[in-house]
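Reply to dn_fold:

You asked what the input looked like. This is it:
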Amino acid sequence: MSLSPVVEKIVLHWGEMGARWGVNRSVAQIHALLWLNGRVMTAEEISETLGIARSNASTSLDELQTYRLVTLGHVIGDRRNFYEAKGDTWDVVQAIVDERKKREIDPTLVVLREARALAESDVSTPADVRARVTEMLGFIERMTGWYEQMRRVPRPTLQRLIKLGAGVARFITRKAS
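and this is what came back:
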């Protein structure tokens, strides 16, 4: 399967973006290919299309399944595995954000909580360091709490809220006056 210039451009960019986020380039490229293709593909098709080793494709597809970005399916009479990416943009973005939170934000919260506890019992920790750690921890906890609340907001409501953009701030400011 040859790629159109548009698909090739996005697949290559997805790989670069993934690498910047700490995701293997092949993983990101496979996701982009499946997402843009909009149909099921076998690991063999994917590896041939992207010019990567079959083992790399299989490992990458396993990783994409753990991220909940790709699902595995089967066809009656065919022993091969077929893979399909989530097609809904909201579902794709939500899965990516959830994974990034799990890999980046959650470990940071653990470290900041441990550092705050240590700073409280360690008299050699300067007061300004203690204050910065506490402030950063509080900020990330508030943002994480907000994120969890937004995860529970129904999609249509969230879409309307996003469309309002800065208008929400004007509404809140007006109500506070």
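The chain has two domains: 5-85, 89-167.
Hope that clears it up.
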